Amino acid sequence: MDLPKGFHQEVIEARENNLENVSDMSSRVSVQPLKPGGSNFQTHVLVEKSSSKIIYRPSTGGILFVLLFFGIGLGFVIYNLFDSTGQVASPSLINFFSLTFGLIFTFFGSYMMFYLFKPRVFDRHLGFYYKSYKFKPHHVNLVNQIRLNNIIAIQIIGETIRDDDGSYGSFELNLVLDDNTRRNVVDHGNLKSIINDAHILSDFLNIPIWHAKSQGDSTSIDWKD
């Protein structure tokens, strides 16, 4: 089986050996959402950095969302810690409930920003996929650092999420590994983008795409969406 340029010979040989049993393994891989929940908008976009590297970057909508969340929290903190002259307010004038609210929003906004910007990189030159701010070449058994020759399929799972305001669909793009485990790459509400990304990664890694019935209802993912 021919593979795209950029794979080392040992990766090619391992890939061909793994693909022989892929069809038998599909029935043993879970089709339940790996990360229940998810946003109702696109959080990441897939970008080709070079012929041997594809990465995910935060979408404009994702960046604006976390900045809004962070900005609201920071605004509450500043409003409660400083008076109208810009001086630090006395403890008696501080609304500690409002300040706590602002600190919580600021903390979670910072966490979401950290997670949103975390690199998600498929690198054929290194032979790894990693979801981390720093690639560690001498660590091969990390949860978020996976050899490409251990990835046997791209999995798409749809999930219907219901809340007090109604319901919406969120879709996972997961990596299926040769030990039947999975790793989540992205999880958001833009099905068309998820499908396009899956096809790009399928071609890039020369592996199949598996899709599962949407969870939470009786409908299947519409591949023509």
Structure report:
Keywords: Membrane, Transmembrane, Transmembrane helix. The protein has about 220 residues and is of the alpha+beta class. It contains five helices and nine strands, in the order H-H-E-E-H-H-E-E-E-E-E-E-H-E. It has helices spanning about 10-20, 20-25, 60-80, 95-115, 190-205, and strands spanning about 45-50, 55-60, 120-125, 130, 145, 150-165, 165-175, 180-190, 210-215. The strands form two sheets. It has a five-stranded antiparallel beta sheet. Strand 6 and strand 7 form a beta hairpin. Helix 3 runs antiparallel to helix 4.
Indicate the percent of residues in helices: 25-40%
The class by helix and strand makeup works out as alpha+beta
Number of domains: 2
Could you give the distance between the termini?
31 Å
Shape: elongated
Gyration radius over CA: 21 Å
* Spatial arrangement of strands, main beta sheet: 1-2-3-4-5
List descriptors.
225 residues, alpha+beta, five-stranded antiparallel β-sheet, 9 strands, 32% helix
Furnish the topology, listing elements before pairings:
Layout: H1 9-19, H2 22-25, E1 44-50, E2 53-58, H3 60-81, H4 96-116, E3 120-123, E4 128-131, E5 145-147, E6 151-163, E7 166-177, E8 182-188, H5 191-205, E9 209-215
Parallel strand pairs: 6-9
Antiparallel strand pairs: 1-2, 2-3, 3-4, 4-5, 6-7, 7-8
Short description:
Keywords: Membrane, Transmembrane, Transmembrane helix. By secondary structure, the protein is an alpha+beta fold.
